[in-house]
Amino acid sequence: MRKETVLTAVIFFAVGFLAGYIFDAQMNWSGRQKVATAGAPAQMPSGGTASAPAGGTMPSGLPEGHPPIDTAAIVKQFKDMAAQNPKDPQVRLKLANFLYDQKQYAQALEWYQRALELDPQNVNARTDLGTAYFYTGRPQDALREYRKSLAVNPQHEPTLLNMVVVNLEGTHDLAAAQAAWDKLRKVNPNNPALESLKQKLDAARAEQTK
């Protein structure tokens, strides 16, 4: 199962796991790390993004030399599968993840919502939905989804991380960002992102006092 996207403010904005798409025999979804530069929410490449060969598109995270991907055909296949399995949230979630990794965030929103209609307690999908909202310039909607995620699991670290970053980079609400950081530290004082997030918060406060 793909893990939720995680935004961070210093080295990366989002960490999720999803590797390669090939249909039929190519439908084994495995882990990959999404990485984006802070302050550039429109960009969500993965580490080691390969160029797309002529005649096809290549989603983020595929190794160089990977065969071309027919995005439209994959989307159609998923939509057909969703129609044939109207009560299966996983098909909808896989399509949402695929669209997300293609940077088609507006389309991904729809399919995350459809997946969550069938599985509303899925905090990972809820976090990805929030992050997709952020990347479409809707930080308040992102925070709303993160709050729903935390209502299900108050200790969900990826959601808390994302709340720090969206409050910091999206709404510029430093008090809310600090509150989310404090909760994250309480949940896991050893979270490796804490120090970099603290530095970002300190820098933002220093900028405000100038």
Q: Would you mind describing this structure in some detail?
A:
It is built from eight helices and no strands. The longest helix is centred in the last third of the chain and has 15 residues, at 194-208. The model is unreliable at 8-60 (pLDDT under 50). Helices cover 53% and strands 0% of the residues. 42% of the residues are buried. It has a domain at 71-208: Alpha Horseshoe (Serine Threonine Protein Phosphatase 5, Tetratricopeptide repeat), CATH 1.25.40.10. Helix 1 packs antiparallel against helix 2 (89-101), helix 2 packs antiparallel against helix 3 (105-118) and helix 4 (123-135) packs antiparallel against helix 5 (139-152). The chain has 210 residues and is mainly α.
Features:
210 residues, mainly alpha, Serine Threonine Protein Phosphatase 5, Tetratricopeptide repeat, 8 helices, 53% helix, 0% strand, elongated
